[in-house]
Amino acid sequence: YGADEQAAAYIKEVFRQSSHGDSLSLADVKDAYYRIVTSEKFKDLLPTPDYDAGRDMLALDIKASVKDNVPIGFGGFITSSPHSMIFLSAGYETLRFNSLGIDAKGWIGQSYYGGQVDARISPLLKVPSVVRLQAAASMQKFYEDDVLFFKEDAPAFLTAIDNHVNLMYDIGLGRNSKLTTSIGFGFLQDKFYTSRSVEFSKTEQDEGRYRLGQLKLVYDNKTLDSDNYPVSGHRYTVRVAGIYGSAGYDGNNEA
């Protein structure tokens, strides 16, 4: 209760898939509960057992509070240096049996521009799984001297550009483990002056370019009682990755 019909149907279906017959064991309830909580679609999920003396069984009442399906965020900070920045974010989340989630974030400032899109598809299968696509692009400028106030015409001594995309597939292995397979591609570019004693308006910057590809497999097993201050449990993480790439350099200035 406390949720609309669509959310109630989603919760019932998750518990139905975790069951083995007409009733649920305690292990089945734990599996379904953690699967719903980790979907990040609910603000709160409070289960309450209710004993049925006639059937000598426990009925489970669940109070659910659903998150907003279109969250919007705004922020930033202002400084006396060229590092002031504003931040914008927006998202969209569906609550269906094959749900879709999209988050977009952007940073805008004099020294830094960046954007990131994260799309997720969560099919409601017997084994919890998520397909994720992440794409990001950013450009950061570094100045020869960190000036005190904003200077529109100040040349950037170094400009770093970072663009990458990553496709991931997560699969749950019980309540404590997950396996992530990912493939990603990236393009990095650095533009810079090789010396401070140059006339910036008449000198072109040198450029370094890097094209990278990565294939990664990560296994994570965790039973910690707290992420921040654990006193019991364990966490094991095994990563296997392969990276292949190429590099290029254009020197526009003589030494």
Short synopsis of the structure:
By secondary structure, the protein is mainly beta. The protein contains two helices and eleven strands, in the order H-H-E-E-E-E-E-E-E-E-E-E-E.
Description:
The chain is mainly beta and 255 residues long. 11% of the residues lie in helices and 55% in strands. It has two helices and eleven strands; from the N terminus they run ααβββββββββββ. A hairpin with a 7-residue loop joins β3 (72-77) and β4. α1 (5-18) packs across α2 (26-38). The protein is elongated. The mean pLDDT is 81.
Strand-helix topology:
Blueprint lengths: L4 H14 L7 H13 L3 E11 L4 E10 L5 E6 L7 E9 L4 E12 L2 E12 L5 E15 L12 E17 L4 E16 L13 E17 L12 E16 L5
Antiparallel strand pairs: 1-2, 3-4, 4-5, 5-6, 6-7, 7-8, 8-9, 9-10, 10-11
